Automatic annotation (TrEMBL):
Record-given protein name: Glycerophosphodiester phosphodiesterase
UniProt entry tagged with the keyword Magnesium: no
Enzyme class, broadest EC rank: hydrolase
Alphabetical keyword list: Hydrolase, Signal
Sequence ranges assigned to domain GP-PDE in this UniProt record: 47-320
EC number: 3.1.4.46
GO biological process: lipid metabolic process
Pfam family, one: GDPD
Gene3D superfamilies with a match to the protein in the record: Phosphatidylinositol (PI) phosphodiesterase (3.20.20.190)
Molecular function as annotated in GO: glycerophosphodiester phosphodiesterase activity
InterPro entries linked to this entry: GP_PDE_dom, PLC-like_Pdiesterase_TIM-brl
Annotated signal peptide: 1-45
Gene symbol of the encoding locus: glpQ
Length: 329
């Protein structure tokens, strides 16, 4: 006897709220009948475009310029990443170390905001020039790391924000985010995600009105069951928003008595049957992450996804326009 396990990460799911009603209206798929039989999925509109980290492929990520450029490039929602400085200021930054993207060094949580504010968030951002050489256009035109408050102020209130709480320990970050969302009355426009259950659990306990992503494990387990066993035992509750990478590299681990075998595969688990499973209990909406080509956009649209997340709204929009595909406005 052997058992198969699946390793992966960054599986996302969300629940619907008023701030997302225009996403909900964008693409409604047919539901399963009461007996649980799977029926064809029919998409009614092109999915909306979410800019990952504000469009990390177009502009230095998680900057005010990235967020405004993404909207100008046709994004309709924004993914942002938040951490907290040593003195409790929530700022928009993703990597563990400041050296990954800026001209600074060390963990952001070990640095006070005054010093973080002096750093260039675009320092590592590069482009290939016409001569094929790598250029760093923002080293002479630095961009600051914005605070969460500044990021929210820079974005129209009707633009949904997906906020990734990206730091441990979770308590200082959660408390800092709560303070800003309270003071800016932004709870209805922000949906919170974290890979750390400690962060979402604490947020749920502290602010019951918080719009939280469902556990990534729940989403992953449903997809694995649908893909490997053809099962739909635990579809999400009505009102859930679910999201995960459209294509995902995973490891299939088969364990034996004397060892294990590991195979790396690309999971293309969003089949019509999987989509129908997710929607079988009622009004559930789906977001596909990692959509960078017109082909994947069209596939997600045909499956009935409500929104797609991309690193480059500019490139995706241009490619769609070139191929004449319709895009939600």
């Amino acid at each position: 006897m052997s058992s198969a396990l699946l390793r992966s990460h960054r599986f996302l799911a969300v629940s619907a709220t008023p701030a997302w009603t225009r996403l909900a209206a964008a693409s409604i798929a047919a539901l399963a009948c009461a007996s649980g039989a799977l029926t064809p999925v029919a998409a009614s509109a092109a999915p909306l475009i979410v800019a990952h980290r504000g469009g990390t492929g177009d502009t230095p990520e998680n900057t005010v310029q990235a967020f405004t450029n993404a909207l100008q490039n046709g994004a309709q929602a924004l993914w942002m990443t938040v951490q907290v400085t040593r003195d409790g200021v929530p700022v928009m930054y993703r990597p563990a170390d400041l050296s990954a993207l800026t001209d600074g060094r060390g963990k952001l949580s070990d640095v006070d905001y005054t010093d973080v504010h002096k750093l260039n968030a675009g320092y590592a951002f590069s482009r290939k020039g016409a001569d094929g050489q790598t250029a760093y256009p923002y080293r002479d035109h630095p961009l600051p790391i914005p605070t969460l408050r500044e990021a929210l102020a820079a974005v129209p209130a009707n633009v949904p924000v997906l906020l990734d709480m990206k730091q441990t320990p979770a308590a200082p970050l959660v408390e800092a985010v709560i303070k800003v969302l309270d003071e800016t009355n932004a709870w209805s426009r922000v949906r919170l995600y974290s890979t750390e259950a400690e962060a979402t659990d604490r947020m749920r306990a502290r602010r019951p009105q918080a719009q939280l992503f469902e556990s990534r494990d729940a989403t992953r387990n449903r997809l694995v069951a649908a893909a490997l066993a053809g099962q739909c035992a635990t579809p999400p509750a009505p009102g859930t928003w679910a999201g995960i990478e459209f294509h995902r590299q995973v490891e299939v681990v088969e364990r034996f008595t004397l060892g294990e075998g590991i195979s790396k595969v690309v999971a293309n688990w969003w089949t019509p049957a999987a989509v129908q499973c997710f929607k079988s209990r009622g009004d559930v909406h789906l977001v596909a992450f990692g959509i960078e080509t017109p082909q994947d956009f069209e596939a997600a649209s045909q499956l009935g996804f409500d929104a797609v997340m991309t690193d480059s709204p500019a490139r995706l929009r241009a490619a769609l326009a070139h191929q004449g595909q319709g895009v939600a406005k």
